[in-house]
Design brief:
Layout lengths: L4 H10 L6 H8 L7 H38 L1
């Protein structure tokens, strides 16, 4: 007996880890029903955004390390 697709979507959203809490809440409060395909697409987009944010934060941190000694000299 196959499970209803909307039920599967809700279960997948509920199984997200705590680090995805904000994204989970956003998905829960959507008024439009999601298909599995659209949910997976949203997961991939969010994951890419998170990877990009990590790269940006890493670059910013490295820049601060390089600039900090110069500020001490001023």
């Amino acid at each position: 007996m196959p499970l209803d697709e909307q039920f599967q979507v809700v279960v997948m959203i509920d199984k997200l880890t705590p680090s995805w809490k904000e994204f989970k809440n956003t998905l829960r409060h959507k008024t439009k029903e999601l298909s599995l395909e659209s949910l997976i697409t949203k997961f991939r987009i969010e994951e890419e955004h998170r990877k990009q944010d990590l790269k940006d934060e890493s670059w910013l941190f490295q820049t601060k390390i390089k600039i900090a000694p110069l500020l001490v000299l001023l």
